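Human:
I keep going back and forth on a fold encoding question. Comparing notes only helps if you start from a blank page. Show me how you would write down a chain together with its backbone fold. Write it directly below this note and I will take it from there.

Assistant:
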Amino acid sequence: LAVVPRSAAFLAPAGLSPLLRTASPVSKGYASVGLRLRNERPQAAVFAGRMAPVQLNLRMEDSWNEAKVVSNTQAADGLNKIVLNVGSDIAKSFKTPGQYVKARKDSSQEKPGFFAIASAPGATADTFEFLIKKTDGSAWICDAAEGSTVEVTDGQGNGYKYASALGDDVKNLILLATGSGIAPLKAVVESGDMKKFDSATLYYGARTPETMAYKDLFDEWKSSGVEVVPVISKPDGTGWDGRTGYIQECMKADGIKSGESTAALLCGVNDMVKEAKGVLSESGVPDGNVLMNF
């Protein structure tokens, strides 16, 4: 809540585009002012005259940029691996694994999609990789032809802030992903940051082997020091001879030896996240060491 004179002019700071709404006072002596932020920090506003409280309603205004579809292939049943050339400026905005972009076909699309970036920051100078589950809401990009264009924002969200959120006492890292939730954790695994930990274990769950993406990368991830534990929840008739059930159950069965020196990064369905957090808490992992990418 800020204060503004009821009769004074509002002087908008640099980077703010005021939506000078002439709305009725919220109550006697109160008014409401809306501001649109152009992806910049709001700065202190200047007011003059008799002061009265005012409600500031802040809204981010996205900057949209054209991106070209470099490739669009099937990564697994129901999942598309899509590479976009976003340009060097947008590529530089991606700094932390776990960040996402908003994407749309063009300005006529009312609701954009939110897609986590699957490639690591700086993996290439001008492209982003995505793993996208095909639904009614994402069919427009999953069906996009190579060479066609879409529109994207720069990298957004906090991502997995493990570099600043975790203390030096954290030695062990657990990563848990289901379905397309592997995308931001792939960015983590391929970031090179796993070398900071004594151990790193990825539990990756899918319904069937056919719906599990990136199987061809497991050996590469293992060679980088990450233990990969693929888990199939519906193995009947698939010939799968690996771990079965749910990843949070497998993590619990394996045990967490030093909870106080362990951190976990999660991305996936709500039930998995809720149950995994319970297992981690019971094992002594501090709540602050359990990170989501949003």
Q: What stands out?
A: Residues 266 and 273 are 7 Å apart (CA to CA). The two ends are 26 Å apart (CA to CA). The helical segments are 88-93, 139-142, 162-165, 182-189, 218-223, 247-254, 270-282. Confidence is low (pLDDT under 50) at residues 1-52.
